[in-house]
Design goal:
The complex is a heterodimer of chains A (about 230) and B (about 230). By secondary structure, chain A is an all-alpha fold. Chain A has helices at about 1-30, 40-70, 70-105, 110-135, 135-160, 185-220. In chain A, helix 1 packs antiparallel against helix 6, helix 2 runs antiparallel to helix 3 and helix 3 packs antiparallel against helix 4. Chain B has helices at about 1-25, 25-45, 55-80, 85-90, 95-125, 135-160, 165-190, 195-225. In chain B, helix 3 packs antiparallel against helix 5 (about 95-125). The relative contact order of chain B is 0.14. The chains are: A mainly alpha (about 230), B mainly alpha (about 230). The interface of A and B includes residues 142, 146 and 161 of A.
Chain lengths: ~230, ~230
């Protein structure tokens, strides 16, 4: 199927560019004075976090439109976006502690940001579990849409509750009202990485979308059971 | 004249559920016993000379409310599964959102009853005075409860018809439940530490916003969960 091939190509290019992000971060970007090499993880952690939240919002938007239009393509996209979101959330939750151990001296702290990312991860897991628990495709899509919309409603609360608690986590460095408090070369690497993660997201989603389309075709033909 | 009608129908649905519960009293009794069990476990699980009861109090209260509420919410639509009662309810000439509102009211009354039982018991068992903070505590509990029961009632309408109903509801509800409870636990801690009310007001506002957002969302989304 053409779409699957396109998705594979996009993913392959994005993964190659990800190698480029590493090379740029390690060789061409200055080492941070206080944190040393540990800061390099920033270039993976932050883009993944941005896309974890964005993916959930996109799930929500697709869900809203699904409830009005009942177009199965929207449901397929929401499912694909949620699956990619759970992967990115896992990336954030793994890279975070790896950075936290040398800098904070602890793998995990019950800090507002860490905890809220954990919620987001659980939200995604719940969404995928709900999808797998409903056999009827129409009901599955409707239920998933309801949960997706509620999840989108939860994202701003998660995002802003961060500002209510005292937190160990560094505050946003680039996306804030004042100018970025990082040297230009670091900002450039970070933005490059955000771009690569965007491509990665697109590549993954296109592949998942194509796969769920193929699965539906097979289900309709009675070839496979519901997973 | 639409709103009074919506509320009247909601009350009819709620009073039906509450009547069923009042006649049997099985759920409320089992939850009440469960609450006592949780208190006992907390009491013997910590060394009172090392950790004072006041420090542990917010956790005890909210752990109890969480489990009790989940037990209650699983019940709401389970009740309607027998003899396809839900189909009858859906066929009734009333708005779908009034069914949701009725279920929400019934669940809230149920959870509130548990809370009314557990707060004095908690105060008695753990020797934590609640009377000086009674009004803000009630406001706090009420606002937090409305938030997660609203989401829970919506989700339970979906989960009862899935493969692992009792298991799935807590999993789906967790991210939605922890956020208001997180705020409520912090605020309860501040309350028991005799902090000024102005510090707690911020949390109450957050909870109120959360309630408004999710009750509205649930009212709008409920029809999608039952349309066949």
């Amino acid at each position: 199927m053409r779409m699957l091939r396109v998705g594979r190509w996009i993913t392959a290019i994005a993964l190659l560019l990800l190698v480029g992000v590493y090379v740029r971060a390690l060789v061409f970007t200055p080492v941070e004075r206080m944190q040393g090499l540990a800061q390099k993880i920033y270039y993976l952690h932050v883009p993944a976090a941005i896309w974890t939240e964005t993916a959930m919002v996109l799930v929500g938007i697709a869900s809203v439109f699904y409830l009005f239009l009942k177009d199965p393509r929207l449901d397929r996209f929401a499912a694909a976006s949620a699956e990619v979101g759970v992967v990115f959330a896992a990336v954030v939750l793994t890279t975070g502690p790896i950075w936290g151990k040398p800098i904070w001296g602890t793998w995990w702290s019950w800090d507002a940001r860490l905890t809220s990312m954990l919620f987001l991860f659980l939200l995604y897991v719940g969404y995928l579990l709900l999808r797998s628990a409903v056999a009827d495709p129409a009901a599955r899509a409707r239920y998933a849409a309801v949960l997706g919309i509620c999840g989108m409603g939860l994202v701003p609360f998660i995002h802003f509750s961060v500002y209510l608690f005292r937190t160990l986590h560094p505050m946003p460095i680039i996306l804030k009202p004042s100018a970025p408090s990082m040297p230009g070369s670091m900002v450039a690497t970070a933005l490059f990485s955000v771009g690569v993660f965007t491509l990665l997201y697109v590549g993954f989603v296109v592949q998942r979308y194509a796969l769920s389309y193929l699965r539906e075709q097979l289900e309709a033909a009675g070839e496979v059971g519901h997973a | 004249m639409r709103l009074p009608k919506l509320l009247r129908h909601a009350w009819t649905v709620a009073s039906k559920d509450l009547l069923v519960e009042f006649r049997s009293r099985t759920a409320i009794l089992s939850v009440a016993v469960f609450v006592v069990l949780v208190f006992v476990v907390f009491q013997f699980g910590h060394d009172p000379t090392a950790v004072s009861n006041v420090d542990l109090a917010p956790s005890i209260l909210w752990v109890t409310f969480t489990f009790a509420a989940i037990l209650a919410m699983n019940r709401a639509f389970q009740l309607e599964l027998e003899n396809q009662a839900l189909d009858g309810l859906l066929l009734a000439p009333i708005e779908r959102s009034s069914i949701y509102l009725g279920k929400l009211i019934a669940n809230l009354v149920f959870v509130a009853t548990i809370e009314v039982i557990s707060v004095p018991l908690f105060s008695l068992f753990f020797n934590v005075p609640v009377l000086p903070y009674l009004l803000p505590l009630i406001a706090l509990i009420a606002l937090a409860t409305v938030g997660f029961v609203a989401v829970g009632t919506l989700f339970s309408a979906m989960t009862v018809r899935t493969r692992f109903a009792e298991l799935l509801l807590p999993v789906l509800l967790l991210p939605f439940m922890i956020l208001p409870q997180w705020w409520a636990v912090v605020a309860t801690g501040q309350l028991f530490a005799s902090r000024p009310l102005s510090e707690i007001l911020g949390w109450l506002n957050m909870l109120a916003v959360y309630d408004i957002v999710f009750v509205t969302l649930a009212l709008l989304l409920f029809p999608a969960t039952v349309n066949e």
